[in-house]
């Protein structure tokens, strides 16, 4: 469509807006931060800064491209008419942010006709900005990224995350007890977008989680894919809420097979 710019232009806008939102969050984090409300459970918190960041991102994107659609974690939603949709997590890792841990990020992805073509995961407290273009590779602060190449699942460092309801968490821990003996070790860092970027840069060999939403993985998933990760779901299905796996090619199949041994173990 005529209103669709090159993916490079979409990425440049995403980086600019994510950086501005990250600056807002850094300034806000310098003061007192408290949970303002909860969503799915008492542990699923929202701060005023989550909402302020999304308001800033939405305003900047709409000012630059008023015909685009928008999907934001904190409720911003516009259908759009241009064929471009922005998928936004204004503060991924809210609990980390609340406790002044550095693993949090602003994640912005641009879809064209339903396909993610550009993405940025900006982690200002860590001093890192991850970017990707479909077919154009992935980078961290301008340096090209490439996934790791572990010899087997047994020597793979695997990241995961947990849902917010008690039932889902208990079931996910049960699955984890089956995974732990089969891998080198497990990491749980609390921000799926950054977990996916960790796979992209090789600081994790693989990542899996159930219950993710599009804003959790849109940008990070592209970054991981463009760095050479294999991304998929359960039993060959596309990645999504039912299961999201991103892994180095050498360990994707055995990890997917391991998780498929208990396909419904972590459902509510």
Brief digest:
By secondary structure, the protein is of the alpha+beta class. It is built from 7 helices and 15 strands. Mean pLDDT is 90; it is low at 37-45.
SSE blueprint:
Blueprint: H1 7-29, E1 35-38, E2 45-47, H2 48-64, E3 69-72, E4 77-78, E5 84-92, H3 94-98, E6 105-112, E7 115-123, E8 128-133, E9 137-140, E10 143-144, E11 157-160, H4 166-179, E12 185-187, H5 192-201, E13 206-209, H6 214-226, E14 230-232, E15 244-247, H7 249-260
Parallel strand pairs: 3-5, 11-12, 11-13
Antiparallel strand pairs: 1-2, 3-4, 5-6, 6-7, 7-8, 8-9, 9-10, 13-15, 14-15
Helix pairs in contact: 1-2, 5-6
How does this structure look, described?
The chain has 268 residues and is an alpha+beta fold. It has two domains: 7-144, Fructose-1,6-Bisphosphatase, Chain A, domain 1 (2-Layer Sandwich), CATH 3.30.540; 153-260, D-Maltodextrin-Binding Protein, domain 2 (3-Layer(aba) Sandwich), CATH 3.40.190.80. Helix content is 35%, strand content 26%. It has seven helices and 15 strands. The chain has helices spanning 7-29, 48-64, 94-98, 166-179, 192-201, 214-226, 249-260; strands at residues 35-38, 45-47, 69-72, 77-78, 84-92, 105-112, 115-123, 128-133, 137-140, 143-144, 157-160, 185-187, 206-209, 230-232, 244-247. The strands form three sheets. The protein has an eight-stranded mixed β-sheet, sandwiched between helices. The chain has a five-stranded mixed β-sheet with strand order 12-11-13-15-14, sandwiched between helices. Helix 1 (7-29) runs antiparallel to helix 2 and helix 5 packs parallel to helix 6 (214-226). The longest helix is centred in the first third of the chain and has 23 residues, at 7-29. The relative contact order is 0.14. The model is unreliable at 37-45 (pLDDT under 50).
